[in-house]
Amino acid sequence: MPFGVPKVVFEASEEEEATWVDLYNRVYRERALFLGREINTELANNLISLMVFLTIDRPGWEPIMLINSPGGFVFSGLAIYDTMRSVGVSTICLGLAASMASVALLGGNFTKRAAFPHARVMIHQPRMKSFEDTLGRVVKEALVLLDLRESVTDIYAHRTGQSWWVLTVDLESDTYMTPKEAKAYGIIDQIIAEK
């Protein structure tokens, strides 16, 4: 039996009658955004439009992005990251922030990047799915990939304070981190304690 998206009651004001809205719509109104699946163009466009709308709708009220994602498409991830940096967002890793989702986690405002105690962060270099093309096209794609790797390494260096040398080694393969390790590395600023 499919679960679907639950409905919750929403009262916009005392004069209006309460209505039922889907859970995500209600939570968005409280400025909580979810990055909860693989990053692709559609997800990136939805998150970007929500961040822009919420910034216009209530200036000065900082959105929170809750992250549990395996990462995904590099260009879409960079679009999310750039938007986060321009509007100001807090980030919380709930389960896994891997690959481009770890870049989104980095995109949170300094001192407002957090993770739950059992969350994990994974970093690695940008990758291409396959090389099924002519040699000329593969070379062009490889040059784009090298440029993307440099951009992502720059982001990690700027946001974590780690040196290029350390990052080059750590991004070479999948590097998983506990919240304590991610905090020491500079990816997050705090670990959310249990109540």
Topology of this structure?
Layout: E1 7-10, E2 19-22, H1 23-29, E3 32-35, H2 41-57, E4 64-69, H3 74-87, E5 90-98, H4 100-106, E6 113-115, E7 120-123, H5 135-160, H6 164-171, E8 175-177, H7 179-185, E9 190-191
Parallel strand pairs: 3-4, 4-5, 5-6, 5-7, 6-9
Antiparallel strand pairs: 1-2, 7-8
Task: Write up this protein.
- The chain is α/β, with parallel strands linked by helices and 195 residues long.
- It has one domain: Alpha-Beta Complex (2-enoyl-CoA Hydratase, Chain A, domain 1).
- 44% of the residues lie in helices and 20% in strands.
- The chain has seven helices and nine strands; from the N terminus they run E-E-H-E-H-E-H-E-H-E-E-H-H-E-H-E.
- The strands form two sheets. Strands 3, 4, 5, 6, 7, 8 and 9 form a seven-stranded mixed sheet that branches. A two-stranded antiparallel ribbon has the order 1-2.
